């Protein structure tokens, strides 16, 4: 009987995936379903709930803190697009060049930050970005004649400070993506372009960039998603995310606070859903514009 | 045969005796209690008090297992434990800012301590219970200290400017003194020595002055009163100190190395903070030894308000999950409300206790070389009668975030309009009520 069951081609696959399905349902599907339920309720703590329909969703779009958070996330996301695509790309091309010696050492140096714990990295940057004249980054910019900056205090510098950390941390990772992409580009293309008289810049813009497009789209999509999910750096740099003038308040920090400081799990779930929706819509728009879907056809 | 049966009897009796021993010992076993806190020194304090308790009450001895957790983590964990009804400790330290929110969501899982507090009510500063109480007079937390607001003057700087600190009686006198002491030392046209530093990311200066006037965030029923006239007046005065009279500099907060260094380097001639800031002076500002004097806050002109108020705090609570609720309550009262506890809170933790009789202990007569060889604790004792109750609501965390991250920042750092900003903040909070 049992033996028959194990030899039944329709049943066996289900037996094998049951453990996964079970975990997936309990730890992934159920929380999503439950938070969808919560987002339609006004909760006070875990135990009292009040059905309010879509009120939380209407509220979230007129919540000045939420709108501020979306704007801060957007600024951060744009910032990472500006730094985290060109810089790793240039490094990748330079390291791919046959004139470059000790490639692996440079790659390792650039990659090490990716391996660090984000919490520790943020704690270290908090010290580096210290606003006094003795601050390490202030000392460095002082060598170039700049006056000391209030990195973590001035609202204009809070997001740039977070972008600085992101750039330091993710350059190595993106470098790996781009390097992998570069190995897929045939050297013959460069050689024939050279024979036709294309200079280095022309080869970069007319061969490297177009052929790396899928990788660039991939990295840009990761940047976009990461940009809107920003949490740990802000949470660490300003104890619990209390940035000056709410200048670095992000959606995820607002969600965390709403849930665990203000105990409003219903509204926090709504923020979570709207956040996911924003990321989904923007990712789709981005993929559409960059022609990702066309290539699939 | 006979021998072996004797052996059997022997073995059996040994087993029975051991068995009895075990039963007896398990009957008299100490009650285990878990305690969470976010301050190392507090854990040590409670462990010491548990030892004292065990010596005095051998029949009701306890084993106190303290656990020190990071601030946010402990409060989040506690909240989840209380809500799910699983894993909460017997006794827990809850920071004053977190207290109202946790209480609001978990009133039925925390224990009303009124019955044990009643015994001590006449011997303590009762006003200090208000932040941990509900409008129906149930008390859910026992305070650790008073946190008497004090003015810390740098007497050297003031004397150099020709000001005697004992002539400063009102905030107007304080302003006049400030005008003398604040100056441009490096000739760049801007003041770089000030009477005061006003923080833009914490409310301590605003709190001290507005609480003197009996105002602050909430009324007794938990309604938001942030835009009250007294609060507006306080903020306008502080803003004028910064922008109109230039006797005050704007800093982020009073709790970072940068600020300690500035005080230590005599950039600011005074600061007003609760009593526990004394420890910051002695720990972080060694160069000011002998230069600092502790005085009451200047009074508001026209004799309005009081000369001090309370600031900061930790309320210790008992949870319904406690293995022995009554014992936990009694131990907690013993550890914080007896005269002996009051003395230890001063000698071991360095805080001003709420137990009034403790101030008569000789340890409070101590002269502090750091504070000009004065008997600082006696100044504090005199101020106890000035302290009025302070009321909070579960919106406190939200209100603090709003003030620290937006409103105060706008007013002090950007010179924003006081009335407009404070009214906006109050409306925003009322919408959440």
Automatic annotation (TrEMBL), chain B:
Keywords, alphabetical: Cell membrane, Lipoprotein, Membrane, Palmitate, Signal
Pfam family, one: SBP_bac_1
Matches recorded under InterPro entries: Bact_solute-bd_prot1 (IPR050490), SBP (IPR006059)
Record-given protein name: Arabinosaccharide transport system substrate-binding protein
């Amino acid at each position: 009987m049992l033996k028959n069951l194990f030899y039944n081609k329709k049943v066996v696959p289900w037996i094998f995936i049951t453990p996964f399905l079970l975990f997936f349902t309990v730890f992934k599907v159920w929380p999503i379903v439950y938070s969808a339920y919560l987002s339609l309720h006004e909760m006070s703590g875990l135990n009292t709930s009040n059905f309010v329909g879509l009120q939380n969703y209407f509220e979230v779009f007129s919540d000045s803190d939420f709108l501020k958070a979306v704007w801060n996330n957007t600024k951060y996301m744009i910032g990472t697009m500006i730094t985290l695509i060109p810089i790793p790309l240039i490094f990748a091309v330079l390291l791919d060049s046959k004139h470059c010696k000790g490639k692996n050492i440079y790659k390792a140096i650039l990659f090490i930050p990716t391996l660090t714990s984000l919490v520790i990295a943020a704690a270290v940057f908090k010290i580096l970005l210290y606003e006094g004249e003795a601050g390490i980054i202030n000392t460095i910019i002082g060598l170039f004649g700049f006056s000391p900056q209030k990195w973590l205090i001035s609202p204009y510098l809070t997001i740039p400070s977070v972008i600085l950390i992101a750039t330091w941390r993710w350059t190595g990772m993106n470098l790996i993506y781009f390097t992998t992409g570069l190995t897929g580009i045939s050297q013959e293309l460069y050689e024939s372009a050279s024979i036709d008289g294309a200079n280095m810049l022309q080869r970069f813009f007319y061969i490297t960039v177009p052929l790396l497009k899928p990788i660039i789209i991939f990295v840009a999509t990761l940047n976009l998603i990461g940009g809107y999910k920003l949490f740990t750096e802000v949470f660490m740099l300003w104890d619990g995310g209390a940035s000056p003038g709410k200048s670095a308040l992000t959606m995820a920090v607002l969600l965390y606070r709403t849930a665990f400081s203000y105990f409003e799990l219903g509204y926090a779930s709504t923020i979570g859903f709207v956040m996911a929706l924003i990321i989904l819509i923007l990712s789709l728009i981005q993929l559409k514009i960059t022609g990702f879907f066309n290539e699939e056809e | 045969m006979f021998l072996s049966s004797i052996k059997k009897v022997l073995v059996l009796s040994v087993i029975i005796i051991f068995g009895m021993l075990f039963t007896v010992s398990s009957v008299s076993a100490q009650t285990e209690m878990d305690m969470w806190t976010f301050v190392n020194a507090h854990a040590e304090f409670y462990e010491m008090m548990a030892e004292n308790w065990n010596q005095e009450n051998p029949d009701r001895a306890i084993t106190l297992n303290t656990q020190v957790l990071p601030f946010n983590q402990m409060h989040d964990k506690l909240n989840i434990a209380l809500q799910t009804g699983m894993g909460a400790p017997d006794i827990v330290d809850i920071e004053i800012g977190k207290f109202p929110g946790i209480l609001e969501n978990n009133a039925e899982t925390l224990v009303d301590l009124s019955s044990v507090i009643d015994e001590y009510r006449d011997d303590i500063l009762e006003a200090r219970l208000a932040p941990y109480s509900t409008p129906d007079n149930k008390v859910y937390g026992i305070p650790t200290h008073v946190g008497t607001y004090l003015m810390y003057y740098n007497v050297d700087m003031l004397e150099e400017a020709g000001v005697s600190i004992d002539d400063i009686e009102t905030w107007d006198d304080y302003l006049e003194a400030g005008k003398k002491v604040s100056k441009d030392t490096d000739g760049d046209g801007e003041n770089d020595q000030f009477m005061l530093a006003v923080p833009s990311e914490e409310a301590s200066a605003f709190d001290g002055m507005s609480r003197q006037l009996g105002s602050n965030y909430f009324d007794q029923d938990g309604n938001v009163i942030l835009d009250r006239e007294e609060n507006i007046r306080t903020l306008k005065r502080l803003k004028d100190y910064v922008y109109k009279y230039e006797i005050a500099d704007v800093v982020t907060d009073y709790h970072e190395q940068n600020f300690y260094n500035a005080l230590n380097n005599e950039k600011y001639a005074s600061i007003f903070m609760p009593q526990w800031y004394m420890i910051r002076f002695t720990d972080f500002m060694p160069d000011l030894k002998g230069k600092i004097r502790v005085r009451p806050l200047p009074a508001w002109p026209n004799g309005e308000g009081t000369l001090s108020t309370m600031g900061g705090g930790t309320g210790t609570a008992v949870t319904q999950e406690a293995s022995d609720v009554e014992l936990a309550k009694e131990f907690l009262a013993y550890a914080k409300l007896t005269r002996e506890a009051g003395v230890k809170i001063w000698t071991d933790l360095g805080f001003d206790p709420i137990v009034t009789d403790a101030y008569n202990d000789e340890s409070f007569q101590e002269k502090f070389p750091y504070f000009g060889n004065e008997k600082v604790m006696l100044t504090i004792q005199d101020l106890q009668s000035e302290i009025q109750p302070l009321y909070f609501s579960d919106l406190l965390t939200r209100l603090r975030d709003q003030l620290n991250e937006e409103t105060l920042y706008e007013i002090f750092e950007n010179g924003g309009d006081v009335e407009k900003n404070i009214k906006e903040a109050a409306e925003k909070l009322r919408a959440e009520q």
